[in-house]
Amino acid sequence: MIETDSKGDVRHVTLARPERRNALTPEGLDDLARTVETATEPVVYLSGAGSAFCAGADLEVVEDLEDGRAFAERGQRTASAIEAAESVVVAGIDGPARGGGLEMALACDLRIATPEATFGEPGVSLGLFGAWGGTVRLPRLIGSADAMDLSLSGRVVDAEEALRMGLVSRIVEDPEAVAREVADNDHRALALTKERLRDDSSTAEQEAAEAVAFAELIERRR
Question: Mind listing the domains of the chain with CATH numbers?
């Protein structure tokens, strides 16, 4: 269900299961993690085929789960692989991003929406919740109040409200253009900047690492 293609400095990764709104299976999660981890391009562009970004976990799989913890951990590993990738990962969100689909987007470095994008964590309506890192990343990104609202109501928000919340960075007609814009920058600087912004160590440790990384970039300019 994962299609991939290199276009210059951008690795295109497409969730390609449009008949199921790109819902993720265990195998799809593994393929997505592997594809992102092995990308050598400075930017990965993650999008969905058809009219949706991703509907989340395939509910047919969920209904037959024998080990819910293992399935949750599988999704968490995939989201962590996206977050930890050396490449900058840009999510191009057109149409619905629901549940696990939203959680995959949360792990990306940039979330770029089209005007048709919508977002929701509908787990509570199904007797579930977002267990692929959603209860961790969502409040970190948009704050506790909005994260509680989305997660406890199960409501859907449009692109404009997602922008207000800080859930997405921009609303554009062509999110792929943003991926190309990012890829036009110095590739080592991109990787080091992402690494620094993702660092959650102490302030002193972050500042020390920041100075070392900056020195590396200065040396490369000589």
Answer: 2-180 (3.90.226.10), 186-220 (no CATH)
